[in-house]
Amino acid sequence: MAAGAQQGAVEVRESVELTEKEEQIFGRLLDVVRHFSLGTQVRVAGGWVRDKLLGKDSTDIDIALDNMTGQNFCERVNEYSEFLGEEQKGIGVIQCNPDQSKHLETATMLIDDIWIDFVNLRSEKYAENSRIPTVEIGTAKEDAFRRDLTINSLFYNINTKSVEDLTERGLEDLKKGLIATPLPAKSTFLDDPLRVLRAIRFAARFSFTLTEDLKEAASDENVKSELGSKISRERIGHEVDLMMSDKHPVDAMCYIRDLGLFYVVFAFPEKLDPPVLDTHDWLCVSHIEAAWNLAHSIGSSVFSGGSDPKSQDDQKRLCLYSALFIPVRNMVYVDKKKKKVPAVSYIIRDSLKLKASDADTIVNIHVASEKFAELVLLESNENLETVKEKLDDEYLEIPTDSVKRVLAGLILREIKGFWRVALFISALINPEVGNASGSLSKQGELNQRKEKYLSVERSITDLDLDGVWNLKPLLDGKAIMGVLEVKSGGPLIGKWQQRLVKWQLAHPKGTMEECKEWMKQSQQQSKRQKVECST
User: Fold this and answer.
1) pLDDT score at 240
2) Dihedral over Cα of 276, 278, 282, 285: its sign
3) Among 12, 142, 305, 516, which residue's CB has the most CB atoms within a 10 Å radius?
4) Which residues form the Poly A polymerase head domain (predicted)?
5) pLDDT digits 0-9 by tens, 200-248
6) What three-state secondary structure class fits 69?
7) In this predicted model, what pLDDT tens digit does every residue of 309-363 receive, in sequence order?
8) What is the 3-state secondary structure (H, E, C) of 373-406?
9) What distance in Å separates the CA atoms of residue 484 and residue 494, rounded to the nearest whole number?
10) Closest Cα to residue 455, out of 530, 347, 381?
11) What is the pLDDT of residue 94?
C-alpha cells in the first residue's frame, strides 16, 4: 500500500456552499431554463461537487443536461443574453473523440470569466473487443454509474440546490476516504483501462485508500495488457505527469509499483545495455521516495531556479523524474540510426510522449550530477590535483585556489538554471545505495547527504557563480583570430574559446587586455617549450 493511504474518516461538508460568482452563474442558467420554458434539470457533475464537499475551491464546472445537447443550451444562453441587451459569447464545440475519452459532443462557453462545459447526460455500453462505447442520451442515474469512480459520480442539482448521490456510494466513500468504482472494477477497467491510472491519481491526491477489489482488478493481467495495448502513450503520459505535478507523487509511484504496473506505464526499449531487471521498479520508486525525504529536509531552495512559480513547479517535476530514473540512468539502447541513446530519453519521449525538452533536461541533469561528484570531493580537497590536471593544458594553468571555481563554473554553464536540481540528484547518487529509501529513512544518512548538498550550494553562491551561464566571453572568435594572428577559424579557435571561458572563471575580474596578454604569453611560452624539447 502506498505511504499516504488514508486512516480514519474524512471531513466532508453536509452541503455545497456556493461562492458569489457561482450563485451568479447558476442563477443565469436557471433564468435561461425559465425564460424559454425548457424544463431542463441542470446539474454540475463530477470533480467540482467532490471538491466543494471537501471544502476545496474549484473552477472546473461541468454542466450535465437531461433533455438537450450542450450546444443547444449554449445557444439559448446567448439568445437570453441578446434579450437582455448583453454581449453574446462564442461557443466552442468539442467533437466526439473516443481516443481522448470524448464519446459525446461537448459545448463550452465563457460565463462570468469562467469556462464552463455543457454536455447532456449519457449512458455508455461497451461491445466486446471495443474500447469505444455506444453512447446514448441517458438518465442521471445511468450517467452516474458510467463514471470512473464513486467519488466522481456525485451531482449538484442547480434546480433543487441539492447534492445527488445516485450510486448511493459516492458520499459514503468520500467520507471513508475510499477509491472505488460504481460498477464492478474489472469490467470498468477493461472498458477504459486509463481509469486505473485515474484511480491511482485520485488516491494519491487525496491520500485515499484503493479498495481491495479495485486493487485486484488493477493488478489483473488482462487489465494490464489492455492498458499497455489499447491506451495511447500520450494519455498515459498525461496521467503520469498530473501525478508528478500533484501533492503526493511518491504515493502515486508506490501504487504503480505495488499494483505491478511499473513496466506497463514506463515501457522500456528493447535490447538494453545493461538489461532491465525485475527489481528495477522497486529501485526506481525507492529513489523517488529518497528524493522526497531529502527535498523536505533541505527545503524549497532546491527548486529555486527562477522567480516564476511555474518554473519552480517545472523544476520540481523534472527533479522527481530524474530521481525516479536514477537506477536506469546508465542504460542505453541503439536506435534506428545506430546511435546509442539513454533509456531514460526513450521512456520520457516514447513511453510517456512528454516534451523532447523534458527528456533532454532529465538526461542533462543525470550527466551533470555525475560531474558534481567531483565537486563534492573538492570540498575536502581530496581530488584537487586530479581535477587540476584535467583542467590544465599547455596554454593554461589554473591557479590552485581557482580550481573549484573553474570546475563548478563549467558544470553550471552546461546545466544552467537546473544546477541545484543536478546537485541534489548528485547528493542522492553519491555514494550509491541499493535501497535508497531504506538508507535515506535513517536520519544520520539523510543529514550527511543534506550537508553535502548545502556545502556545495554555499560554495557555488560564495564563488558568485549562480547565473554564470550568462557570462559573455571577453573575446569573440574574430578577436581570438586577431591575437593568434591566423586568417581562418576552425577547431583551433574552438579550443581557444574553451580556454578563454576557463581563464575568465579563474580570473573573474580579468579585463580584455589582460586576457589578450595571457593568450600572447601562453603562446610564446608554448613555442619556447617546444623548441627546448626538440633540442
Assistant:
1) 98
2) positive
3) 305
4) 43-179
5) 999 999 999 999 999 999 999 999 999 999 999 999 999 999 999 999 9
6) coil
7) 668 899 999 999 999 999 999 999 999 999 999 999 999 999 999 999 999 999 9
8) HHHHHHCCCCCHHHHHHHHCECCECCCHHHHHHH
9) 13
10) 381
11) 81
Q: List the grid coordinates of 461.
A: 553562491
The answer to whether the peptide bond before residue 491 is cis (omega within 30 degrees of 0) is no
The span from the CA of 119 to the CA of 134, in Å, is 16
> What's the pLDDT at 100?
46
Locate cell 471537501: which residue?
Answer: 54
195, 188 Cβ separation under 8 angstroms: yes
pLDDT of residue 128: 58
Burial class (CB in 10 A: 0-12, 13-18, 19+), 54: middle
Residue 350 DSSP symbol? I
Neighbours of 293 (CB within 10 A): 21
How far is 265 from 347, CA to CA, in rounded Å? 9
pLDDT score of 99: 53
pLDDT less than 70: residues of the chain = 1-8, 96-104, 125-135, 305-310, 433-441, 529-535
CA gap 112, 129 in Å, rounded: 44
Q: Which of 142, 188, 144 is nearest to 165 (CA)?
A: 144
Residue 110 makes CB contacts below 8 A (sequence gap 6+) with 89, 90, 116
CA distances from 487 to 192, 478, 479, 484, 492 (A): 67, 9, 11, 9, 12
- Tell me which H or E stretch contains 92: strand 91-94
Grid cell locating 318? 523534472
Kindly give the pairing relationship between strand 340-342 and strand 91-94.
unpaired
d(CA 433, CA 294): 14
What amino acid occupies position 336? K
What cell does 263 get? Answer: 513496466
Compute the distance between CA of residue 261 and CA of residue 268 in angstroms, rounded to an integer. 13
The 10 Å Cβ neighbour count of residue 311 is 14
Per-residue pLDDT at 126: 62
User: Rounded to 5 degrees, what are φ and ψ at 341?
Assistant: -125, 135
- Candidates 260, 259, 152, 250; CA nearest to 210 is 259
Contact criterion met (CB below 8 Å) for 377 and 384: no
Single-letter amino acid code for the residue at 124: E
φ, ψ (nearest 5 deg) of residue 476: -90, 180
Other Cβ atoms less than 10 A from the Cβ of 7: the count is 7
C-alpha cell at 204: 494519491
pLDDT of residue 310: 62
pLDDT in the model for residue 102:
46
User: pLDDT value at position 1?
Assistant: 41
Q: CA 422, 424, 430, 432 torsion: positive or negative?
A: negative
How far is Cα 535 from Cα 488, in angstroms, rounded to an integer?
30
Q: Pairing mode, if any, of strands 178-179 and 91-94?
A: unpaired
Query: What is the 8-class DSSP label of residue 416?
Result: G
Largest Cα–Cα separation, the chain? 107
